[in-house]
Amino acid sequence: MDWEELGAMVVACTRCAISQTRSRTVFGVGDRQADWMVIGEAPGAEEDRQGEPFVGKAGQLLTNMLLAIGMRRETVYIANVLKCRPPNNRDPKPDEVSNCRGYLERQIELVNPALILVVGRIAAQNLLQTDAPLARLRGREHRAPLTGTPVVVTYHPAYLLRQPADKRKAWQDLLFAREITDRRRV
Ligand code: URA
């Protein structure tokens, strides 16, 4: 499946009940040949309105976090585990994650990034298929199933908006991620 076919499938998808309550699907955005791919959980209200991931308050913080390590938002590829907004921003249900998994897996294959930065526990647990808490997932290099792409886990920017004291630790995570991609270039 190429980008066009994949995009068309997502726009038309009705596998989950939440397809009935979405305003728009939120496919993904950015450089399709990016070195870095950022993966979040699911669209929120603003993303559902605009059809683009991470455009609300948390998205602005994500954009700034990337800039802090010298990466403009346009130079990465950003997507979510779910392409539709769960009502009231509830956690994704397991059947929703499994219905949507193939779309994200194909996006990862097509971008073929050098690194995946996963933001937040929900996205990390779903992508890496683990129950481990975020504290155990941070600070280590994981591998994405199927592609074996290096994965680094950090806090969700929405969490950091509530707990700004943890931004320092998120900064460490970003430096760790950059170390991994820098290492691959030499
Ligand atoms: N939170 C996410 O995980 N993804 C978005 O696109 C927006 C907020």
UniProtKB/TrEMBL annotation:
Judging by the UniProt lineage, the source's domain of life is Bacteria
Is Metal-binding found in the keyword set? yes
Q: Name one Pfam family in it.
A: UDG
Q: What is its EC number?
A: 3.2.2.27
Q: Which UniProt keywords apply?
A: 4Fe-4S, DNA damage, DNA repair, Glycosidase, Hydrolase, Iron, Iron-sulfur, Metal-binding
**Reaction(s) catalyzed by this protein?**
Hydrolyzes single-stranded DNA or mismatched double-stranded DNA and polynucleotides, releasing free uracil
Uracil-DNA glycosylase-like domain location, by residue? 27-175
The opening ranks of the lineage are: Bacteria, Pseudomonadati, Pseudomonadota, Gammaproteobacteria, Thiotrichales
* InterPro entries reported for this sequence: UDG_Type-4/5 (IPR051536), Ura-DNA_glyco_family4 (IPR005273), Uracil-DNA_glycosylase-like (IPR005122), Uracil-DNA_glycosylase-like_sf (IPR036895)
Whose protein is this, by species? Candidatus Thiothrix phosphatis
Q: Name one GO molecular function term.
A: uracil DNA N-glycosylase activity
Any idea what this protein is called?
A: Type-4 uracil-DNA glycosylase
The family annotation for this protein states: Belongs to the uracil-DNA glycosylase (UDG) superfamily. Type 4 (UDGa) family.
Q: Keyword Iron-sulfur on this protein?
A: yes
